[in-house]
Amino acid sequence: MLLHKDQQVVKTKAKLNEFQRQLIFDCGMDVQEGCNSTTRRRQSDVSSRSVLCSDIRDHEWSTWNIDPVTAVDVNGWNFNVFQTYDGIGGKGLLRAVVMPILVEQGVLPATRGQPGPLPLELPRLFNFLDQLEDGYCGDATGASAGPTANPYHNVLHAADVTQAFHFFLTLVCEASPGVREAITPQDRLACVLACAAHDYTHPGRNNVFLRATLAKVHVQYFDSVLERLHLSRALRLLLLSPKCQALRNLTQQQQIQIHALIAKLILATDMAKHVEFIDTFKAWATSVHKRGGEDPASLLVAEENGKVLLLQMLLKAADICNTFRPWDTCTTWCARLVEEFSRQGEEERALGLETSKFMDGRATPQEMQNTFIPLMVVPLLKSLSALFPNFVSLEAVAWDNLRRWRRSGGIQGSTSSINSYSVEPGVMKV
Questions:
Q1: Residue 201 neighbours by CB distance under 10 Å
Q2: pLDDT (average), residues 96-101
């Protein structure tokens, strides 16, 4: 039955009030703003739409200059985001990385015009990725300032993390048939979008700085400040911006589930809760191992909380993957991180604040990595290796990089753990 326009708006607002409370349950977004924005667009009859990506035609793929299969090689651990950025001319990096990943993960069809599992609107997905890219490297207000504004927390990091997550997800699915079956195309889509958006509008300063300066975003969010900022602004784009509503043809329940998973993933990247996540995952891994079976990881993902925890761990690993990338890539990332830390330290001194650790301009990359890799990186990789043996090689790369940092900095350290690992050629995809 067709509703009068005013009746339709009232009915839509009533539904969206509850809908958006569930979608943006913890981000501080104004619900009424969302209702006013969303109801301005004409409502679509989802049931009448094909599951084909029917809004995309061959000429539109050509217009966007995207080949979903061959644009960028996203499957190997030797992926170099700096070379990729230069190779595409410096613009459209997220599109160039995300689209082939969505094909590899089975979210988009490998052949144009073929059915896909989800009725995505790809032009709007392109717009969403472009808006994310423009929002990276800006200040805390979201203003864009180009690819070098933040030396580390920029679109290069977003693309690198997205590719690393894709690599890790592929590893766990290869190791466990149960995991491969449990993680749906909808889950995979949410994960890739979360990776791409996880540091959106990062100001180049950490949560400690925002708290010390009583920044507006700290007053607004208080806990996991940056993570809630990234999440809230990314969801505004995806949900409220008419040109970015790539999910609008999915059912309401699907959208709720995708947004909820995106939220859980991005909030998990708060390093203040790093050890807590590792301990929780280790407890789950121990529990499923005790229950036995040929595929203990399948027991982990059989429960929704276990599946989400695994995906959170993979994103956390991807977020710090620069430390165990191949050596040349690793050192480039570390130099960028040192520069960004130094900039915060300079601002802290200018404001009369206590300078944060490793941000005084005197800390060397070797000192930073000698602390971070054994305390933060290796425990996370080791916990994943307990369920997925193919992560052992990544753990070995982390130890090998640590050995190089110590050697180059003249740092003495225990070698007992290091010597128990070796990087075996051919173990990892390249």
A1: 25
A2: 95
Contact 347, 205 (CB under 8 A): yes
The Cα 301–Cα 36 span in angstroms is 39
CA-based nearest residue to 216, from 232, 235, 238:
232
Burial tier of 321 (Cβ tally within 10 Å: 0-12, 13-18, 19+): buried
Residue 252 class from Cβ within 10 Å (0-12 exposed, 13-18 middle, 19+ buried)? Answer: middle
Of 190, 162, 54, the closest CA to residue 109 belongs to: 54
Q: What angle do CA 340, 360, 212 make, to 5 degrees?
A: 80
Cα 336 from Cα 339, distance rounded (Å): 5
Dist. CA 428–CA 430, nearest whole Å: 6
Whole-number Å distance between alpha carbons of 374 and 400: 11
Give CA–CA dist 345/360, Å, rounded: 5
Residue type, 15: K
Percent of the chain exceeding pLDDT 70 equals: 76
Rounded CA separation 365/324 (Å): 14
Specify the pTM: 0.82
In the predicted model, what is the mean pLDDT of residues 192-196?
A: 98
pLDDT classification of 413: cutoffs 50, 70, 90:
low
Q: How far apart are CA 271 and CA 354, in angstroms?
A: 20
Contact 201, 135 (CB under 8 A): yes
pLDDT over threshold 90, residue 53? no
- Burial bucket for residue 351 (CB in 10 Å: 0-12, 13-18, 19+): exposed
pLDDT of residue 362: 86
CA dist., res. 149 & res. 131, Å (int): 17
CA–CA dist 119, 14 (Å, integer): 25
pLDDT in tens, 372-388: 999 999 999 999 999 99
